UniProtKB/TrEMBL annotation:
PANTHER family: ASPARTYL AMINOPEPTIDASE, ASPARTYL AMINOPEPTIDASE-RELATED
Organism of origin: Papaver somniferum
Name of the protein described by the UniProt record: Aspartyl aminopeptidase
GO CC aspect terms: cytoplasm
Skewed-composition ranges (Basic and acidic residues): 206-219
Keyword Metal-binding carried by entry: yes
Family: Belongs to the peptidase M18 family.
Entry annotated with the keyword Zinc: yes
Positions of the UniProt region annotated as Disordered: 199-219
Keywords: Aminopeptidase, Hydrolase, Metal-binding, Metalloprotease, Protease, Zinc
């Protein structure tokens, strides 16, 4: 696996490996699935009945871009609460269009659409490739079936070149047009023609019929060169690729960096950093034989897709996936006919974990004076009076109390009154399910850039804090009285 780090302690080495294994949400789920299976979690399916047991650990995926894992305490009875950390697997990126074939000025280009609110100027002059999933047609003994296959081309095959400064003397700064300027170059037409001829195929841009109508149709939608590269990567024929969901990604690996090796430089820290920390916290908090012995609740992690575009999808936080999981676990272990889910929800708690804005030394005026999260300063509790974050005094206290008990640093963030505030899955889950929620995140710089950065210490703090939450929430929550 590229970028493996062996010279740092466990959590840092593991997050670097996780980041490098996860160029897309699909790959992040695949890597999470591998880690969960290794830790003894059993895969279950939403398409089947669930026969769950206390003291056991399970997970399921939806669309292979969201994943929910949970461990049922041995003291759990239906109606008890769920202790959940929620994060998301997606990041801003450039996704291939349904018809990606673009030919201009002797170049083969690839049509892309913007996904989320990326800093698109950072995608210029980077060594890019593609990754995602393919739908493959397979034939065996006369029967045809279709499989979902993850794909990743490791070599840099695309680039979005900047315009030379001599040809653009504007003083307004670089403001690329996302339709006309943000189009990666795959190859030149002349080289593609020669490559086709050498392979004994038709012209690279020919509209002539081939021996396979399906292949002819695909060649009109996507460059045959791109289809050949994808087919070669997964070991199939280009004409067996029925469809795909692909995105561009940087080929530079995630690394521990800085003069004192105190930073992580990587793409997709928002929000794979929180996804990894929550996943590892769940795995490690349930790893020993006795870890669930006295647990009356269910420890759960939910990694959703599509947060960057509003979460309104079948596998986003705005879907019923979370409610379905709580309902099915409760029902599976409920021997009576009474409805206990409503009671369980009121005993439950969600930590919405999404990266936070660290104070930028060159733009200090962008932060409110008394709320300036620092790197190495620990997790940030996010507050917003207008409910862009779901934190309130009770949920903030619970998370802060855990930090104080373990001597972990903690910070607060409020956006300036004269600036708009972003949001997270926190308010979506809080309002959609009616569950207590706190919004938190590790501080980072360059959020939504193709290359982001955070502090090594904050990865460790995040993991330790979330692990402590899983292990101690039940006991702490029993001491809090609010609605009486």
């Amino acid at each position: 696996m590229a970028g493996v780090v062996d010279s740092y302690d466990g959590v840092v080495s593991e997050i670097i490996n996780f980041l490098n294994a996860s160029p897309t949400a699909f790959h992040a789920v695949d890597e999470a699935k591998r880690l969960l299976k290794k830790a003894g979690f059993e895969q279950i399916s939403e398409k089947q009945d669930w026969k769950l047991q206390v003291g056991k650990k399970y997970f399921f995926t939806r669309n292979y871009s969201s994943i929910v894992a949970f461990a049922i305490g041995k003291m759990f009875v239906a109606g008890n609460g769920f202790h959940i950390v929620g994060a998301h697997t997606d990041s801003p990126c450039l996704k291939l269009k349904p018809v990606s074939k673009v030919t201009k000025a002797g170049f083969l280009e690839v049509g892309v659409q913007t996904y989320g609110g990326g800093l698109w100027h950072t995608w210029f002059d980077r060594d890019l490739t593609v990754a995602g999933r393919l739908i493959i047609r397979e034939s065996k003994d006369g029967a045809v079936s279709y499989s979902h296959r993850l794909v990743r081309i490791h070599e840099p095959i695309m680039r979005i070149p900047n315009l030379a400064i001599h040809l653009d003397r504007s003083t307004d700064g670089f403001k690329p047009n996302s339709q006309t300027h943000l189009v990666p170059i795959l190859a030149t037409s002349v080289k593609a023609e020669l490559n086709k001829a050498a392979a004994g195929n038709v012209s690279a841009e020919s509209d002539g019929k081939t021996s396979n109508d399906k292949k002819d149709t695909d060649d009109k939608k996507h460059h045959s060169l791109l289809l050949q590269l994808l087919a070669s990567e997964v070991g199939c024929k280009p004409e067996d690729i029925c469809d795909f969901e692909l995105q561009l990604c940087d080929t530079q690996p995630s690394i521990v960096a800085g003069a004192l090796k105190e930073f992580i430089f990587s793409g997709r820290l928002d929000n794979l950093c929180m996804s990894f920390c929550s996943l590892k916290a769940l795995i490690d908090s349930t790893s020993s034989e006795s870890s669930l012995e006295d647990e009356p609740g269910v420890r759960m992690v939910a990694l959703f897709d599509h947060e960057e575009v509003g979460s309104n999808s079948a596998q986003g936080a705005g879907s019923p996936v979370m409610f379905d999981a709580l309902s099915r676990v409760t029902d599976s272990l409920n021997s009576s006919t009474s409805k206990l889910l409503e009671k369980a929800i009121q005993k439950s708690f969600v930590v919405s974990a999404d990266m936070a804005h660290a104070l930028h030394p060159n733009y200090m005026d962008k932060h409110e004076e008394n709320h300036q999260p620092k790197m190495h300063g620990g997790l940030v509790i996010k507050h917003n009076a207008n409910q862009r974050y779901a934190t309130n005094a009770v949920t903030s206290f619970i998370f802060r109390e855990i930090a104080e008990k373990h001597n972990l640093p903690i910070q607060d963030f409020v956006v300036r009154n004269d600036m708009p505030c972003g949001s997270t899955i926190g308010p979506i889950l809080a309002s959609g399910i009616g569950i207590r929620t706190v919004d938190i995140g590790a501080p980072q710089l360059s959020m939504h850039s193709i290359r982001e950065m955070c502090a090594v210490d904050d990865v460790k703090h995040s993991y330790q804090h979330l692990k402590a939450f899983y292990e101690e929430f039940s006991q702490l929550d029993g001491k809090i009285t609010v609605d009486i």
